[in-house]
Amino acid sequence: MTGSGTHAEHVLVVDDEVQIRRALRTILESRGYEVTCADSGAECIAALTQRTPDLIVLDLSLPDTDGIELCEQMRTWLTVPILVLSVRSDETDKIAALETGADDYLTKPFSAGELVARVRALLRRAGGGIAPPPVLVLDDVTIDIAGHRVLRSGAEVTLTPIEFGILALLAQNADRLVTWSQISDAVWGPEWLADVRTIRVHVSNLRKKIEQHPAVPRYVLTEPGVGLRLATR
């Protein structure tokens, strides 16, 4: 099932490679999604004028436009989740895509399981309203954003203000990438640029307090060169 509604959720796939479009259609339709495909930026815009999808899977390398520019253009009037799916693995491309409006970034080649998990997470957040839950439960960890409390196996965990700020930001964006610069702006403020090494130190201390195995984290995951993600599964 793809949700609690009575209709299949609609995914628009934008990719110029016919094999990728076919693979994505097969993967997503087998999970119950309705899929429309476009092979260029122009075809993508044409499809959007006909019908607004529930989610867009967007390649960055298109024949008539750059995917990052297309993403930025769509964000001026679209609020649906955008999952970038690209062969570009350079961190500058990932950061540019995320900061111009993409909600997540997956690098080719990809596994069908990870793709579907990312799609489901984005659709779940989009369908759940704008406000995050005041309390987020992750198995043995409970994050009470409003109450400014974190519990692990029922016992309260003492976090520093910076550690809680990082965790709360990740909880408000659960299952989504949050870039290093977004963390710096939200936790330290836009007037202060915290370097990645400083953030990593606080994240390391945070993991020691909430992760069962801090060296192999289950919840606070690092996306190399890009930022962090709080995994809910």
Q: How do the helices and strands line up, and which of them pair or pack?
A:
Elements: E1 10-14, H1 18-30, E2 34-38, H2 41-50, E3 55-58, H3 67-74, E4 82-86, H4 91-99, E5 104-107, H5 112-127, E6 135-138, E7 141-144, E8 149-152, E9 155-156, H6 161-172, E10 177-179, H7 180-188, H8 196-210, E11 220-223, E12 227-230
Helix pairs in contact: 6-7, 6-8
Q: What is the rounded distance between the termini?
A: 18 Å
What do the pLDDT scores average to? 88
Hey, roughly how much beta strand do the residues contain?
Answer: 15-25%
The tally of strands reads: 12
* CATH topological fold name of the largest domain: Rossmann fold
Notes on the structure:
This protein has 233 residues and is an alpha/beta fold. The chain folds into two domains: 118 residues, Response regulator (Rossmann fold, 3-Layer(aba) Sandwich); 96 residues, Arc Repressor Mutant, subunit A (Orthogonal Bundle). It contains eight helices and twelve strands. A five-stranded parallel β-sheet has the order 2-1-3-4-5, with helices on both faces. A hairpin with a 2-residue loop joins strand 6 and strand 7. Helix 6 packs across helix 7 and helix 6 packs across helix 8. The two termini are 18 Å apart. The mean pLDDT is 88.
